[in-house]
């Protein structure tokens, strides 16, 4: 087993009765049994992902999900456009927000957006409630600006993705987060947007200013869709956070290279197009950048790839 349940002894006793001989529950730590457990875990994850994809592509299931959400939340119409926001950070550093969009129960990835948190983070701190409020404010300020644009319907206008408000705005969290998002939307004068929070632990649905959550049936298509939207927002936020953190750590490594000033650091990044590509470059490729000699190129290479220091270039 990957971990022992709280009722491990009772479960082992029950399994022993079914089998007719003693059953012992263990968590494998090493060797073949550990490898087997990891293989089983990967296979289970793959099977779950395939099940989710099949279920999400079913039009009837998606229609039932939207109807379930409408009924559970008491909405006037089915939420054809759902947006969800999440925040990701590690101990208050590299704080980012994500916004994902689902239309008709399917992800609309062209409308996804990242947010670098500005006001609600800094000095190693992060207030999740304030971060949710900041992302919400920026998203709906963009909506108000786009809505008032006289060229909104012009075919030459490149993006209209935030000109229209969602029918349902979901935040990852409970009462504090949903109340913060709702307060911002009310302050901006945006109407006809339902706001809810989906708390991870018990999958409770929170609505603004209500003391108790809505409990949707565990097997309902509506709850499944809300979970999928929330999990997608979390995945998107985590991916951006890791990228931002990696870029910062790599840039910090460049700061330690002797004789590499800001001008030449910028020249390196400009030449390769990104920190990630610079990290994969060989010493010879780095030397090709004007103003970068062999010694400096070697120092840059070793700073970005310490595991390969001294290896053939």
Describe the 3D structure.
By secondary structure, the chain is of the alpha+beta class. The chain has three domains: 8-56, no CATH class; 75-246, UvrC, RNAse H endonuclease domain (Nucleotidyltransferase, domain 5), CATH 3.30.420.340; 256-308, 5' to 3' exonuclease, C-terminal subdomain (DNA polymerase, domain 1). It is built from ten helices and nine strands. The strands form two sheets. Strands 1, 2, 3, 4, 7, 8 and 9 form a seven-stranded mixed beta sheet that branches. A hairpin with a 6-residue loop joins strand 8 and strand 9. Helix 3 (59-73) packs across helix 6 and helix 4 runs parallel beside helix 5 (175-187). The mean pLDDT is 83. Residues 6-185 form the UvrC family homology region profile domain. It comes from Mycobacterium tuberculosis. One of its GO terms (cellular component) is excinuclease repair complex. GO terms for molecular function: DNA binding; excinuclease ABC activity. This is Excinuclease ABC subunit C.
């Amino acid at each position: 087993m990957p971990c022992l349940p709280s009722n491990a002894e009772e479960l082992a006793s029950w399994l022993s009765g079914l089998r007719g001989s003693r059953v012992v529950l263990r968590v494998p730590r090493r060797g073949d049994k550990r490898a087997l457990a990891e293989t089983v875990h990967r296979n289970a994850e793959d099977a779950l992902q395939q099940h989710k994809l099949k279920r999400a592509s079913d039009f009837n299931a998606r229609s039932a999900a939207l109807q379930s959400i409408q009924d559970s939340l008491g909405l006037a119409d089915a939420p054809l456009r759902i947006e969800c926001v999440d925040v990701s950070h590690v101990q208050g550093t590299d704080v980012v927000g994500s916004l994902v969009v689902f239309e008709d129960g399917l992800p609309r990835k062209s409308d996804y957006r990242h947010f670098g948190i500005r006001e609600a983070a800094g000095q190693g701190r992060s207030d999740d409630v304030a971060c949710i409020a900041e992302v919400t404010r920026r998203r709906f300020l963009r909506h108000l600006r786009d809505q008032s644009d006289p060229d909104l319907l012009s075919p030459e206008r490149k993006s209209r993705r935030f000109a229209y408000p969602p029918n349902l705005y979901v935040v990852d969290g409970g009462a504090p987060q949903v109340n913060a998002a709702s307060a911002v939307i009310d302050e901006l004068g945006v109407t006809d947007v339902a706001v809810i929070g989906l708390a991870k632990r018990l999958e409770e649905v929170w609505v603004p200013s209500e003391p108790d959550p809505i409990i949707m049936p565990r097997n309902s298509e509506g709850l499944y869709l809300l979970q999928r939207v929330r999990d997608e927002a979390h995945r998107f936020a985590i991916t951006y956070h890791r990228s931002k953190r990696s870029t910062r750590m790599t840039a910090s490594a460049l700061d330690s290279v002797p004789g590499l000033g800001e001008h030449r650091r910028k020249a390196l990044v400009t030449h390769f197009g990104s920190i990630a590509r610079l990290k994969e470059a060989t010493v010879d490729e780095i030397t090709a950048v004007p103003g970068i000699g062999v010694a400096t190129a070697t120092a840059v290479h070793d700073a970005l790839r310490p595991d390969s220091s001294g290896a053939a270039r």
